[in-house]
Each structure stands twice: as structure tokens, then as C-alpha cells.
Amino acid sequence: MAEQGMAAQCTERDKQAAWRIIAFLLSYPGWAMWREALPEIATWAREVQNPDIGNTLAAVVERFLHTDPLELERTYVETFDFNDKRALYLTAHEFGDSRDRGPALIELRRLLREHGFEEADHELPDHLPLLFEFLAVTAASPDNAELERRLARVCGEIEQALPEGSPYRPVFRCANAILGTTGPAEFRNPSGRCEAADLDELPYPLYYE
Asked: How far are the Cα atoms of 104, 161, 189, 201, 209 from residue 171, in angstroms, in the given order?
């Protein structure tokens, strides 16, 4: 179904619920608590009033429930850790390894901490699951709207980079359906530099509560 149709009649409550589900589904699936939480996440998905988004996310959860845990971990790592175009780090897409990425990370950390959010000790503040969790629990604001515009651009690129059969493609399709309602994503790197991101040392993501 077209993304525009998926986003139709998406209430603010639906958006926040979807962001939390998406944050969970994009977190690393290797933790026992992640696996144990899947049935509850399925319930959340069924409660999303927009049927296209709710049913799509519920189908992803159902697929994960019936996938061997080790296979799911392997799929996650192969999907997001070995391809720069599918990396789950916002500023890696925006700046690559240019020197402008550092200030952008500092600014994101400032925004998160203003609202009581902190990334895990071994994580970066531009990790997409953390940013979606942030959007799920904070009120609409100009800062949030700007973050959504940035996410729209990056999530669109990630969806296009995912193979058609990837279990994560529907997750990004839902994200992009919602983000598409925020207006065009026009990120401009002021320096014009965007070096290829070196993601070899980035840690596995965590489930944020």
C-alpha cells in the first residue's frame, strides 16, 4: 500500500505508539528481555488505530516471533552493521566521517538530555532506536519537527537500500509513511563534506525503555 495511504488518519497517539514499536523492532534482538517483550509489542501494534500501520507492524512482530533467535540476530547484524547505507546512525548518513559529525552528535546529546534522555555508555546519541523512543515520549515541538525532517531523509534512504524481502523494510515503510506527513526532508550539510562512515567499531544497539 502506498505510504501516503498508510499515513492517512494517523493520530498523534498512533504516531507515538508507532514510534515506540519501531524503536523496539530496530533494537538489537539478541537480548533475552527483547525476545520476552515481543508478545507485548504485538499487543501494542494491534492497538494502533491506523489499520495499515498497525497491521504492518504486527505482521513484523509475528514474523520475528516465528524466526529462530540466532537467525534473527544474524539477519540484524548483516542488515545494519555491514552496509553504510543501512546504518542505524542518523549523523553517519548526514556527515559520514567528516569533522562536522562531532558537533552534530553533541547537539543531539544536548537535545536528548534536556528531556531526561541519555544514551547507554557504549552507544551514540544518533542511534535511530533511541531517537524514535525520544519522539514517542516527548511532546511536539520545533526541535522534534526538525528531528523528524532529518529522520525522513535518512529513513527514506535506508528503506531504499533494504532488499525487498528484508523483514526490516516494512518497519521503515511505516516510519516513512508517518514521517512523510512532516514535510520535505531537506538536510543541508553546511561544510559540503560527507566522508564515508567507518562503522566497524560501533556497538550493537540496545532496547531502550
From this structure: 26, 13, 27, 25, 19
For residues 50-74, b (16+ Cβ closer than 10 Å) or e, as one string?
bebbbbbbbebbeebeeeeeeebbe
**Hey, what CATH topology would domain 3-182 get?**
TorD-like (1.10.3480)
For residue 127 the three cell numbers come to: 542511534
DSSP-assigned letter for residue 85: G
**pLDDT tens sequence across 123-172:** 899 999 999 999 999 988 999 999 999 999 999 999 999 999 999 999 99
Helices (H), the chain: 3-7, 12-25, 32-47, 51-65, 69-80, 90-95, 101-114, 128-137, 142-161, 169-179
Whole-angstrom distance, CA of residue 32 vs CA of residue 151 = 29
Number of Cβ atoms within 10 Å of the Cβ of 181: 14
- Measured between alpha carbons, how far is 86 from 161 in angstroms, rounded to an integer? 6
Q: Are 187 and 150 in contact (CB under 8 A)?
A: yes
Q: Element (H or E) spanning 164, and its range? A: none
d(CA 113, CA 96) in angstroms, rounded, equals 24
For 30-53, write each residue's pLDDT tens digit.
Answer: 988 999 999 999 999 999 999 999
* Beta strands per DSSP E along the chain: none
Average pLDDT of the residues of the chain: 85
3-class secondary-structure state, position 89:
strand
pLDDT at position 8, please? 52
